[in-house]
Design brief:
This protein is an all-alpha fold. The chain is 82% helix and 0% strand. The protein contains eleven helices and no strands. Residues 18-131 form the VTT domain.
């Protein structure tokens, strides 16, 4: 094993910076993707078959139901996808977040763009200052009350801005729908000679549209909360 590790470490320490950076990025990308897909596999396995009988699946099952993993799932649910790239700046919690993203069945097209910046940052840290220096810097910053208060203030401003932006988008969508509904209602009234539509007809039409939409949905996609509830119930 040392015959394999030693050349790799020598390449990381003495190789060209660009190639070392690409090598580390590829390693971080591959590890994160593997962890994510293991989470998705285990989430589906637990939902369909429950507790494994033994082997590596049982070991993963116990890891999934550990308090640390459940905490990571809860934090990821509250904070959303921004937690994924930020987790690459930590040790230990990084793996739990990638696993949790798979367990809650976060869609791959959404997970991967969020993961790539984290992998880039992780590779940059290892290529330049190294993880030991990074950890020492974080420890020094965390020991300063002014910096901690400033970081908290920035986080509060970010989440307030994000919430207001979401509210504006919802209000704009509702206004647009109301305008479209008024226009459609006027056109329908003109075409039908003034006849009005009964509320029961609208409900029946809504049910038909919903059933038609569900039939085209990918059967492999499961609502995150359904997956989480199934994993917790399988204890």
């Amino acid at each position: 094993m040392a015959n394999v590790i030693d050349p790799i470490m020598d390449f990381i320490n003495n190789g060209p910076v660009v190639f070392v950076y690409l090598f580390l990025f590829f390693g971080a990308f591959t590890r994160a993707q593997t962890t994510y897909w293991i989470g998705r596999y285990m989430g589906k396995f637990i939902m369909t078959r429950g507790r494994p009988d033994g082997g590596w699946r049982l070991r993963l099952y116990k890891r999934i139901h550990a308090p640390s993993t459940e905490h990571a799932i809860e934090v990821l649910q509250r904070r959303g996808w921004p937690l994924i790239p930020l987790s690459f700046l930590t040790v230990g919690f990084q793996t739990l977040v990638q696993l949790s993203a798979g367990l809650i069945r976060m869609r791959w097209p959404r997970y991967t763009p969020a993961m790539i910046p984290g992998a880039l940052a992780w590779a940059l840290i290892y290529t330049t200052i190294g993880w030991a220096v990074w950890s020492a810097a974080i420890g020094a910053v965390a020991g300063s009350p002014i910096v901690v208060v400033g970081a908290i203030a920035l986080l509060v401003v970010f989440f307030v801005w994000r919430a207001r932006r979401g509210n504006r988008a919802v209000i704009a969508a509702i206004s647009k729908d109301d305008g479209a509904g008024d226009s459609t209602g006027s056109q329908s009234e003109d075409m039908s000679g003034g006849e009005t539509t009964k509320p029961g007809d609208i409900e029946e039409a809504g049910e038909a549209v919903t059933l038609g939409g569900d039939s085209g949905r990918d059967s492999d996609e499961t609502h995150p909360q359904v997956a989480i509830d199934a994993i917790r119930d399988a204890r």
